[in-house]
Amino acid sequence: MPITVLLVDDEPLVRAGLRAVLEAQPDIEVVGEAADGAAVVPLVRSLRPDVVAMDVRMPLLDGIEATRAVLRSVDAPPKILVVTTFENDEYVYDALRAGADGFLLKRARPAEIVHAVRLVAEGESLLFPAAVRSLAAEYGSEPARAALERAALTEREAAVLRLMARGMSNAEIAADLVVGAETVKSHVSAVLAKLGARDRTQAVIAAYESGFVSPG
In the record, which positions carry 4-aspartylphosphate (predicted)? Predict the structure, then answer.
């Protein structure tokens, strides 16, 4: 089955460019388009895309609020890939905190766009570059530190979280720790449960905001 994608951007040329790049791949299908975040929830409900590639800044409803709306009102929501012009934009970080699964620069090369969609669809790696890590560290807070302490991660779970924060996939973490892939999946699930995180992105945000890992 192909990875199905919904494109959301107020610039028709951006949507056309993304569609051309993605539909050139045999394993990706663009199932719909929207010009504003206000149209996202109805389209997600009707089209059931695997991934929503969404501009972070739009005139009526921006990508941050649209992300919140999808996660709040849609059962089994799709992965959300934020598309933006600037990698150190605080809007991007706010979208990730709201529940987006990764982000993509509009100037990215075609191969990078395809890789980002596949990566987010698989859900086992992160698109969380250095600029966004720095923003996460700047948002550090005592509540975040207290929450991580309450999680009481085991030594192995802590090691897995550190490697997740470096953007490693389950397979890469397994190779680094010399354990099986199923063992890593179990540790990742335990980390998410203890942190109360919806997904890997939310867990990594918690790790940076708490100071558990640093952006260096």
Answer: 55
Alpha-carbon distance of 41 to 6, in angstroms, equals 11
Helix (H, G, I), strand (E, B) or coil at 74: coil
| CATH no. for 141-210 | 1.10.10.10
Q: Are 6 and 79 in contact (CB under 8 A)?
A: no
Q: Which residue ranges make up each domain of the chain? A: 3-126, 141-210
More confident: 83 or 16: 16
Q: What is the pLDDT of residue 165?
A: 87
Global confidence as pTM: 0.80
Q: Across residues 50-56, what is the average pLDDT?
A: 94
